[in-house]
Amino acid sequence: MNDIDRAVSLLSELIRIDTSNPPGNEEEAILFLEGYLRKEGLSTEIFPVAPKRANLMARLKGKSKEKPIVLLSHIDVVPAKAEDWEVPPFSGEVRDGFVYGRGAIDMKSQAVCQLLALTRLYKDRLTPERDILFLATCDEEVGGQYGVEYMLKEVEELRHASFVLSEGGCIIEENGCLHAQVSVAEKKLSQFSIEAKGTGGHGSMPHHDNANEKVLAAANAIMSYQWPLKPTGIITTYLNGILKGEKKEGFTYTNLRETLRNKRFREFVESNPVYNALLRNTVTVTILKGGEKVNVIPTESSISFDARLLPTEDRQAFFRKIRVLAGKDVEVIPIGAEKHDPPQSGYDTPYFRGIKKVMKKLTGPIPVLPFVTTGATDLRHFRELGIPAYGFFPITLSNQELFRMHGLNERISVRNIGEGLAGTYEILKFLATA
Ligand SMILES: [Zn+2]
């Protein structure tokens, strides 16, 4: 069996172990990975953390006792509703050159590529300068309390890691051009709900103290506010790297700050969900709750929002603005404990240059650019400790394919798996010398 076939079969098997979180149940998947690593001769350790939940750490011993390098992947996935999928989400079925299933992109494929790249390094008898740790964790999709947060408390050397590589960026194919996104920061999670109380009653007798009407009016005000487009440092470097000289109807891209003054460019940004999310705070309605019966006015009602702020934004100021927009009839309740804002990782580093070199060797001279992940990942826990942490998986995807992540019919092509394996191995070889 060659490495690509092995990766495809490992990925299918891993997808078949349903690790939907909640509840997670990642232990079986963790034991599956551990079994493979142990069979290959690597030393492993399992960290049980709750019933059916565990984390795994494997080690490739280095020459020195310097701070280790961490290859990080989470083993849980977001839930999937089987009836909406073309291929059952926990089948791991290979169809028309794609492996289908929840976790195919996010991020069981990267876990498999990291695992196989590490075992290959071991079999090639390449001893790294420092230890390389393979860390597979549970619980990322609901915040990481049992996963990375637990492991950072439990294992001191992780708190002193020299570098962490995980998910968050890839090679993007757009209009026939390629560029690599290496994620060095992420937007700030700032979810909240608005809640209203009112007077109940019969639907046939409307009055002015209707909880549903209060949250709807507040939500309308929140949704109609346009958050300004702002050129942050990383995204300026990123967009300048891929758009410079681009001519579209009504604008020629020179640099971000200047081109943002052009109304047609701003319309172009707003029509592209990726650019839009990279350049402004986003606030999205996700849950509506209010009323049970069509003829009854409810006494309580709420609407929840998923909000993500640019890395440079102040969360307090954001909530002040939301409270003003929402008005006095509703209460604004932030969701999740307030956390410190994780700093971004620098991109003028040997790690960034190393990844650039590897990409040049594998894909030719494509732009390799710093990127901001719009979702949250476990890397933030490492960045909070000041550890350089990058999100990058060297596979080529279109944004359409990427949108399947957390969505319907998530899949990864066998070609991508080959690419991910080769790229991860080359990056690992570079890290082994770091
Ligand atoms: Zn993920």
Automatic annotation (TrEMBL):
Keyword presence, Zinc: yes
GO molecular function: metal ion binding; peptidase activity
Residue intervals of the Peptidase M20 dimerisation domain: 185-327
Entry keywords, A to Z: Hydrolase, Metal-binding, Protease, Zinc
Record InterPro entries: ArgE/DapE_CS, Bact_exopeptidase_dim_dom, Pept_M20A, Peptidase_M20, Peptidase_M20_dimer
GO biological process: proteolysis
Matching Pfam families: M20_dimer (PF07687), Peptidase_M20 (PF01546)
Gene3D superfamilies from the UniProt entry: 1.10.150.900, 3.30.70.360, Zn peptidases
Annotated transmembrane regions: none
Family: Belongs to the peptidase M20A family.
Protein name according to UniProt: M20/M25/M40 family metallo-hydrolase
Lineage: Bacteria, Pseudomonadati, Thermodesulfobacteriota, Syntrophorhabdia, Syntrophorhabdales
